[in-house]
Amino acid sequence: MTAFDDLMAYQRETSALGQIAGRLGWDQETVMPRGAAPQRAEEMAAIESVLHARRSDPKVAEWLDQAEPGCEAGQAQVREIRRSYERTIKVPADLAKAIARVTSTAQGKWAQARADEDVTAFLPVLEEVVALKREEGAALAQGGNIYDAMVEDYEPYTTGSQIAAIFDEMRPRLVALRAAVLDRPAPQALERAFNETDQMRLSQKLATTFGYDLTRGRVDKAVHPFSSGSGSDVRITTRTNETDPFNCFYSTIHEVGHAAYEQGINPSFALTPLGCGVSMGVHESQSRIYENQLGRSRAFTGWLYGQMIDVFGDFGIADADTFYATVNRVHNGYIRTEADEVQYNLHIMLRFDLERALMAGDLQVRDLEAAWNDRFKADFGYAVDKPSNGCLQDVHWSVGLFGYFPTYSLGNVYAGCLYQALRDAVPDLEKQLAAGDTSCATGWLRENVQQHGGLYAPREIIRRASGVEPGPEPLLAYLERKFGALYGL
Amino acid sequence: MTAFDDLMAYQRETSALGQIAGRLGWDQETVMPRGAAPQRAEEMAAIESVLHARRSDPKVAEWLDQAEPGCEAGQAQVREIRRSYERTIKVPADLAKAIARVTSTAQGKWAQARADEDVTAFLPVLEEVVALKREEGAALAQGGNIYDAMVEDYEPYTTGSQIAAIFDEMRPRLVALRAAVLDRPAPQALERAFNETDQMRLSQKLATTFGYDLTRGRVDKAVHPFSSGSGSDVRITTRTNETDPFNCFYSTIHEVGHAAYEQGINPSFALTPLGCGVSMGVHESQSRIYENQLGRSRAFTGWLYGQMIDVFGDFGIADADTFYATVNRVHNGYIRTEADEVQYNLHIMLRFDLERALMAGDLQVRDLEAAWNDRFKADFGYAVDKPSNGCLQDVHWSVGLFGYFPTYSLGNVYAGCLYQALRDAVPDLEKQLAAGDTSCATGWLRENVQQHGGLYAPREIIRRASGVEPGPEPLLAYLERKFGALYGL
């Protein structure tokens, strides 16, 4: 046994324990009895403490010093284990515990404040979270940029300035596109009820249509759709809304994008740092391209229209062109998670600028609501009516997820690059999608993105797959083309 | 922080990790995608390895040496932590790993051999298991009796000789009762189909009727019914068989007995060694008294008869007395898990004597089948027709569970003692059960048995609750009285 072998054997056990922690999260959101919550918190703390101890064990440093990985994958393993080790030891254990303690309280206070529409009830605990996260960021950055150090947790090898440059290029064109689209007559909306059992049945069909392997996964209902797990146990959840079947269908397709990424990774990487998606941004690129560029295309919605007629009978939409416009309806709204392709990224940029200013100390928590509302008015043209539609709408900040929001839009940007390359690689893509066949598209994504897991850095994997330097132009061109045609601009 | 406080804080985390391992087991039997099995084996091995390391950590020995627990419960905690520590360090790590490896293979080989009716295909791996378990038993016994050391894992503070003395008293009376009962005409059997969804619905009602708290538990379907978890997350499973609704109902009531024990434990013991059932025998005493003495009583079956009429309409049984006889029908059969109250313990005694002889070296694995078949003929009066109805029917030995079988019958013996005391404590018990009200009965069991968790040794808890020295007389008298009346002996 070489030092590298020892390191990998140890890491394999750590990864297995990490999978267990993930499965507890799935259990909590799907099947856990509600009275079990306090005990579950202790169970999660216990396994997180085991994971922390393993990730920062001095043995890991010794093995890392002596490891001589032969191949490219071995070098990537060592790179990622070193990154995790150094990240873990930089943060003092007391600080990590304080963050865990405060954020677990803060989430409850956030939920109550949102229900009560009472921002001031949330601000004191948010101040604590922000102060602790800035302290953590300073420990991680070691003199460098605090926000960059946080982004690193979700989108490694990417900085806040890089993201800001991308977003600066996107914002004016998205604001202009949004204004132009909303100036035009709105397409027809759905106006009847859709049986929820039938929604779930069609949803299951959509999952397999997009290549989800149900022998290594399962679909359940949960309040918030998510995908969880790596390797051969990757589960998704979706939800149903009687009057909005698209919520169910596109949540499913979105989560299948995440799950297919995990299921598509080279099996020899299983239970290693390379055996899961490389970053939140690349993860989101898969969920978004499945959901939007493929799932909301004219070709695929044509097939879906037929499926819905089969299941629900005539549901008041006359033809496939109208259905395509209905699926892609752009509408005013306050809520990020309900936003359409045109407006979604504007919601993200708002959060990115505010959280970056909070971390830099340029914005105080007490001024957050005003800053949010000003920015919303500037980009969307109307005022926030209540905090639950404004700065209290998302859970992220209460649980300390600073640096996470921009990865949603990076995912859209990456999906734009990938889709451009995919269309060149599969010339009859639209014909296939129109027949409900996604196999060439998902096969291309598996081959060029998914199988590599954590082997390459996020931007490198997108560069390799798309053949271009990752940037927002393909996404913007796609949105302007698609919605320009849909709205006759 | 005293040494005792440190010890308990550490133990609390260990217990939380133990709960996680249990939850993985539940997941595996209920919701896990089938393709996830190999990865799950690695996950289980990883958490078991963490648990083993924690249970045998030298820090535990230091704390144990210095701990000065003040109260009775503290002393019991120290006693149980010491027992676990000493048990863990006595078995060499290599031996523990070899047992884990061999038994995981052996279970598959057993299942295949059972399907093929091929005992010889199973014997080589069973020989390995027996050899390794004898080695483990010798390490644990340190010169003492090997089988006693194994019983200790499931029924602490109890020896093979104590059990043998109890069983020797039971066997002749049970053989005689069995023969007399089967000499009489058989009661009417069920002869129609019962909708499985309705079975599950009534099953859920039975669970709450017996006091199962669904805010801290849930009921799912699984191939083999079981109860899993402690504290505030105690889940049960049951199964349905279209022509045999009693299988579903009494499996549910049985598992609710186990679950109610866990749910009834003093909450201040949660996530400590006292926070779960003290032994398999006491556990089984709860499941059996719920299932048999209460659930199969004339009074309760009268109520159940009405429930079944409500749900299924007329199902061909004319009145409650006939129904009571049908529920308690004694019938020939080879399979332990399908046996009635009269014959169940005979199946156990057969296994107890054989496994005790195997561990003592008095019986060789190659002679096991013949020994099984001889004994079966002697007690039941007819010959085993095929191995799946004989020595291949149970999974236990393949996974190394020697010393486990007798706890099933100890549970029946303990249930007999408890029921005698319960009838004295609740004079109008039958009236309550006839109204479908188990609250006084289950309340008495909670107060006198369940709440104590691991505080007292198994025989002590039964002695305290029943006021008698635990022995088989109350059970035998109950069986002779009940089945004597039912069969007009």
Automatic annotation (TrEMBL), chains A, B:
Keywords: Carboxypeptidase, Hydrolase, Metal-binding, Metalloprotease, Protease
Record GO terms (molecular function): carboxypeptidase activity
UniProt catalytic activity: Release of a C-terminal amino acid with broad specificity, except for -Pro
Keyword Metal-binding: yes
EC number(s) recorded for this UniProt protein: 3.4.17.19
Coiled coil segments of this chain: none
Cytoplasm found in the keyword field: no
Similarity remark: Belongs to the peptidase M32 family.
Function, as annotated: Broad specificity carboxypetidase that releases amino acids sequentially from the C-terminus, including neutral, aromatic, polar and basic residues.
UniProt xrefs under PANTHER family: CARBOXYPEPTIDASE 1, METAL-DEPENDENT CARBOXYPEPTIDASE
Protein name: Metal-dependent carboxypeptidase
